[in-house]
Amino acid sequence: MSDMGLFLKTFFSNISIMLTLMYVASLIYKYTLYKLSPNVKEILFILLAILCGLTTMHYGFQFSETALFDLRFMAIIVAPMFVRHPISILIIGLGIGAARLSFGLSYASFVGCCNVIVMSLLCMLICWWAEQRNWGFYRKMTALVLWINTANVVIIAVFGVIPSSEYLLEIAPGTYILSLILSFGFTLLLREFIMEANRKWQLHNYNIKLKEQYHISEEKTKELQLAKLELEEKNEQILLASRYKSAFLANMSHELRTPLNSILVLSQILEENIDGQLSDEEIRYANIIHSSGEELLHLINEVLDLSKIEAGRMDLDRSEFSISETLEQMSYTFQPIAMQKNIELVIESKEGVPAIIYADGQRLQQIIKNLLSNAMKFTEKGTVKLSVYPIRDKKGIVNGTELMADWLVFSVEDSGIGISETKQPIIFEAFYQADDTISRKYGGTGLGLSISKQFAALMGGFIELESQEGLGSKFSLYVPWEEITQSQGSEEACAREEAYVKQEPPII
């Protein structure tokens, strides 16, 4: 019984058997059992742990015909690493205890059976204690190894068939230390085995998810390709419809302008009444026909302009443009209207404004006319003011892009009805009126501001609105300073530019 070689042989054979069984079980699990539910896996581990205990007892060290020494308690130590329910540990202990009794009924087998059951209860208690204290893996397993090995020594010394003095003095010192070392070693090996198995399982799941994502991406790619084809077809249809619309509007414009021009000419002749054959009432009728025809012609022009902008066919004719002449023309056009409505019209050009700029004069005048026309229309009393001035380093949004630049500003401010904050964002939409009653009371189609905004964008600028309902509005057209103060290569234009625009715009 003092032969340590036999003890070592018993310990290492027990460990080797357990490792072999665990490796075989891992292979079976890897290729056949990994898809099973967690409860089934736990039942299979319980059976494996009982089998390990039975096998180690079969190859244990035989002290006598009834006394048997082995490492059956190792299955109890490692059980918490694999099972989720504490009762499973007790089932493993009961199973190994029953297996001990299968070697023959005796006092030694009864003590061995009780020993493994007590150790399983102790393992359950330590696991519960560790969970309450939030212990980590290594701290919990250290406590299990120390307490279960110590309990094994105490139970054998107190209840075993080997005399206590002989066991504690000759056997226990070597077997206890060796058992601790092997228990720690076996636990760490299983720890690495579990972590490796988990890594492989995670990698397997990751590969499955990658395949699923790949299939999903392929399906989405096909869907995107189909959507792209549909969009291309719809785009072709839209372009075709746009061409049809442009052709229709061009043809309708020609067909409408011809009789409309005749109406305008004839109504003007009748209005002039050179022969003096018409009565005052008939002259008034001719005047109404002429003014209505002009309004209709203006509406046709606006619709055509809007159509050209939407179709991308609107080109700017950039040339020399006199601001002072434009201001005089605006005064000549709108001063009679202001006098008729008893409104004060103020037109001013502030310091730093160049006399000559390079822009599409027709479109620029059209924007200013639209803004002044709206201001006159919606102002019953007070003032309408047109101001031209430069401004430096102001942020503006041009075609959706925020831009910090220098600008030349054409501002139209009135003391009219104003626009509420809720309706300001949509006031520039085509055919939009701020109120249904406005079109009935003031007239108009709602195209002027929409066309003005798009003309401003074509020039590289924008229109800014400041308004308060009941207190008037201020529309400001910003055109880029650098664009309007650069000629297109004419020597005469360059000379005029040097004379007029060498000064930088002041900060307003």
Automatic annotation (TrEMBL):
InterPro entries found in the cross-reference section: HATPase_C_sf, HATPase_dom, His_kinase_dom, HisK_dim/P_dom, HisK_dim/P_sf, Sensor_HK_Regulatory, Sig_transdc_His_kin-like_C
Top-level enzyme category: transferase
Membrane-crossing segments per the record: 12-31, 43-61, 73-99, 105-130, 142-162, 174-194
Catalysed reactions, as listed in the record: ATP + protein L-histidine = ADP + protein N-phospho-L-histidine
Keywords per UniProt: ATP-binding, Kinase, Membrane, Nucleotide-binding, Phosphoprotein, Transferase, Transmembrane, Transmembrane helix, Two-component regulatory system
UniProt-recorded Gene Ontology molecular function terms: protein histidine kinase activity
UniProt KW Transmembrane keyword: yes
EC number: 2.7.13.3
Name of this chain's protein: histidine kinase
Lineage, top ranks: Bacteria, Bacillati, Bacillota, Bacilli, Bacillales
